[in-house]
Design brief:
single chain; 15 strands; four-stranded antiparallel sheet
Length: 284
């Protein structure tokens, strides 16, 4: 079976987030096996990243940590022509209701967060700033970085970050405090929210260091976890199957529908005011 066939036929175990889009766990069959084989080949001999014990056939891949999630994300994008990828923080919030088994699991996203002050994982923080061409002295707000690659390195982590074709930094002023956030389809970023139904985020109180970004159970997104190598059996690699960039196209459609809705609401209000004036005055 070719990789292209795998990506076309691969069925994600989860719930449909939108028509033709699928969100769920990466399963250890076909594509999952390929991803772990490539991961283990790259990080052979590193027990914190390479899998010593492989999952059972047709079961979710567990024991996620930051380098594992980023490596798998890179492999999936390359092997499926970007049709299957690890969820970003925006997609976690956007597809929150479609994510399976939230209350009993955690899942790392495709990104890490970088804060203005020096702190945990400072070596890797400097590496990310170097990749992005940013000066640490000029940082005013936190940001997070999507789709970094990982490569073996002779340091205490056993890996370092690399740039990929998809690497992108997003300024995130909402990370300056703990609060609720929601996905804004117009700007395609996360923004603060007052709605109790939206997703709560936790950030470091001292705004320092480089941190992992993960969904933690069914209650929140963590942007403050500094232990990049920690993992346990409840960890999942959660992905979206997005053939031909349908998520982006659907976002554009949603924007168009919202603009059309607002226009009709404004027209209705204008007509109402005109009719009210006629009733009161008898004049147009």
């Amino acid at each position: 079976m070719t990789t292209q066939t795998i990506s076309q036929d691969y069925q994600i175990r989860g719930n449909p987030a939108r028509p033709v889009l699928e969100v769920g766990d990466l399963i250890y069959n076909d594509l999952g096996q390929l991803a772990l084989a490539k991961l283990n080949e790259k990080f052979r001999g590193n027990p914190n990243i390479a899998y010593q014990d492989l999952p059972e056939q047709n079961q979710p891949i567990s024991f996620s940590n930051r380098p594992r999630a980023l490596a798998i994300n890179q492999i999936l994008r390359e092997e499926t022509n970007n049709q299957i990828r690890v969820l970003s923080p925006e997609e976690v919030v956007q597809y929150w209701q479609a994510i399976p088994d939230k209350s009993a699991t955690y899942a790392d996203t495709n990104s890490v967060s970088v804060f203005p002050n020096q702190g945990p994982n400072e070596t890797l923080r400097k590496r990310v700033l170097e990749i992005l061409g940013k000066n640490s002295k000029n940082l005013e707000v936190p940001f997070y970085v999507h789709d970094l690659g990982v490569e073996p390195a002779d340091n205490k982590y056993g890996f370092t970050f690399t740039e990929t074709d998809y690497t992108k930094a997003t300024e995130a002023p909402f990370l300056q405090k703990n609060q609720k956030v929601k996905y804004d389809p117009k700007t395609r970023v996360l923004v603060p929210s007052e709605d109790h139904k939206d997703v709560y985020i936790w950030t470091p109180y001292d705004q320092s260091g480089l941190r992992g970004n993960c969904r933690y159970g069914g209650g929140c997104l963590l942007f403050r976890d500094y232990d990049l190598l920690n993992s346990n059996s409840s960890g999942r690699v959660q992905v979206v199957k997005d053939p031909q960039g349908l998520a982006e196209n659907l976002d554009e459609l949603v924007n168009e529908l919202q603009i059309e809705r607002d226009k009709k609401i404004a027209e209705t209000q204008t007509n109402y005011e005109k009719a009210l004036k006629v009733l009161r005055t008898g004049k147009l």
